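Can't paste images in this forum, so I'm doing it all in text. The chain is below; anyone willing to post the predicted structure tokens underneath?
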Amino acid sequence: MIALTLIVCLNAAPADCRLEDVAFDGSIMQCALFGQAAAADQLKARPKWHLKRYRCRAGRSTNA
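Text version of the structure:
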């Protein structure tokens, strides 16, 4: 399983950031290529947050 780790920050308080692990169904290469789009999909429902950084890693996500 590949985990897409997002660092998201609150728009109103940019220093208020948190890590979120999201399961990514694919290979590490697919995550590297399409991870940004997957992260954008995760944030569509949360307009008060913005994506600061993302990374792909092998291992289980905590939010499967």
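Residues 23 and 64 are 5 Å apart (CA to CA). Helices lie at 28-43.
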